[in-house]
Design brief:
By secondary structure, the protein is α/β, with parallel strands linked by helices. It is about 50% helix and about 10% strand. It has 13 helices and 10 strands. Strands 2-1-3-4-5 form a 5-stranded parallel β-sheet, sandwiched between helices. Helix 5 packs across helix 6. The radius of gyration is 21 Å and the shape is globular.
Length: about 400
């Protein structure tokens, strides 16, 4: 018999429905423009441009850092690294900071919330004055505005993440079609070959930009549908685990405990995001701020442990320092096999922490050895899709905490 309470079940169903509707509206109307943006980003990068992702709040900062790590450290085998920088600054300084770094041919993306709008708009104007192409996900006066059709900040952020993941994946199409990039040398044609899983429609002449854009548009729609399907699987299959994790967290917070959050790479930005969400009330104003600590936040601590002991210890050592009975730990991993994540979960269990893990693939060692008390699996082998589904799960978990009994 299901242990999910009726209010929790309603929240999850309502959350999935809202995301389903917003995603369909966004990609039905904007898929063509997203394809064109992929082309524009590729052209800028081919001419030596960089991606600068700017933000002036913790929530926006998680997306800015996510963009930087995904473009610099591509997880798709054989795809080039693209230069990307996260610029996280105080609202009063952000425009000046962007002005110091931005240059002609760069692409500057702005991430944030409603209260960040004036600072982000000024930063984009500063970037445009230096010849940069500007991109925003709200009406901030950017050259490219792709706005998610939802008033829910969590839903908006998830759609923004899916969109910049898609741009990251599909801008590589145009590097494979050099003749479609202004000023590049044309070749006779292109066979997607081993990379065809990324853009299965592509095998076009390099003189036919419209045909390639049409194929990229189709791939945008396909990837959005994959995200939606994985989101549904993750939340539906993981409903009981999410509800139980929320109850456990509410009890931890009720006793004055702290949630420790961790992950590597893009998953580190997911940890950053859930901490940002927990340490303030819900967007509706309901609930209250909760104690949470991001174990990937301090580069001095992370690099000291990695240098002196080894990268596998970067989180476990912090669990020893900060965690104890009455606290909780949440781990994000796309594979479920990361040594640093596994060692942290093992250490947390030794110390009596409640443990929660969001993992991809088949769950890896985390699932096989049941290293977490509460386990939510996104059953995919495609890292961007896994991270997008995990973002939904973590946002819904945040909401469920406020419904759970103490």
């Amino acid at each position: 018999m299901s242990t999910v309470t009726e209010p929790a079940a309603e929240l999850l169903a309502r959350g999935l429905a809202a995301r389903r509707e917003a995603s369909a509206r966004l990609y039905e109307t904007e898929a063509r423009r997203i394809a064109e943006l992929c082309h524009a980003v590729a052209e800028r990068c081919a001419r030596g441009g960089r991606l600068l992702a700017c933000a002036c709040s913790p929530v926006g900062g998680s997306d800015a850092r996510h963009v930087a790590v995904e473009f610099v450290h591509p997880v798709i085998v054989g795809k080039r690294a693209l230069p990307a920088i996260a610029l996280l600054g105080d609202a009063t300084r952000l425009a000046a900071d962007v002005g110091l770094v931005a240059r002609e041919q760069d692409v500057v993306l702005a991430f944030g919330e409603r209260d960040d709008a004036p600072a982000l708009a000024a930063a984009l104007e500063s970037a445009r004055a230096r010849g940069s192409l500007t991109v925003a996900f709200a009406p901030l006066g950017a050259d490219w505005v792709i706005e998610p059709p939802s008033l829910d900040p969590y839903v908006r952020q998830e759609l923004v993440e899916t969109t910049y993941h898609i741009v990251w994946e599909l801008c590589h199409v145009f590097f494979e079609h050099r003749g479609l990039l202004a000023g590049r040398t044309e070749r006779r044609g292109h066979d997607a070959g081993a990379s065809s899983f990324l853009y299965p429609f592509l095998s076009e002449s390099e003189t036919d930009l419209e045909a390639v854009l049409a194929d990229v548009r189709s791939s945008v729609v396909m990837k959005a549908a994959e995200t939606e399907a994985l989101r549904e699987q993750t939340v539906s299959e993981g409903a009981e685990e999410l509800a139980a994790a929320a109850v456990a967290l509410r009890q931890v917070f009720g006793r004055g405990g702290t949630l420790l959050a961790l992950g590597n790479g893009g998953s580190a930005t997911d940890a950053m995001d859930i901490v940002a969400d927990l340490t303030r009330p819900l967007p509706s104003g309901a609930g209250q701020a909760r104690r949470a600590l991001d174990l990937a936040a301090d580069p001095s601590i992370v690099t000291a442990i990695a240098n002196d002991i080894g990268p596998q210890a970067v989180f476990a050592r912090q669990v020893i320092a900060y965690g104890g009975a009455g606290d909780a730990l949440i781990a994000f991993s796309t594979s479920g096999d990361s040594r640093s994540v596994i060692d942290a979960l093992i250490e947390a269990r030794k110390r009596g922490l409640v443990t929660i893990a969001l993992v991809g693939y088949d769950g890896g060692r985390v699932a096989a050895e049941r290293l977490a008390d509460h386990l939510i699996i996104s059953r995919s082998q495609h890292i961007p899709r896994i991270q997008e589904a995990q973002a939904t799960a973590s946002h819904l978990l945040r909401e469920l905490v406020e419904l759970a009994p103490q």
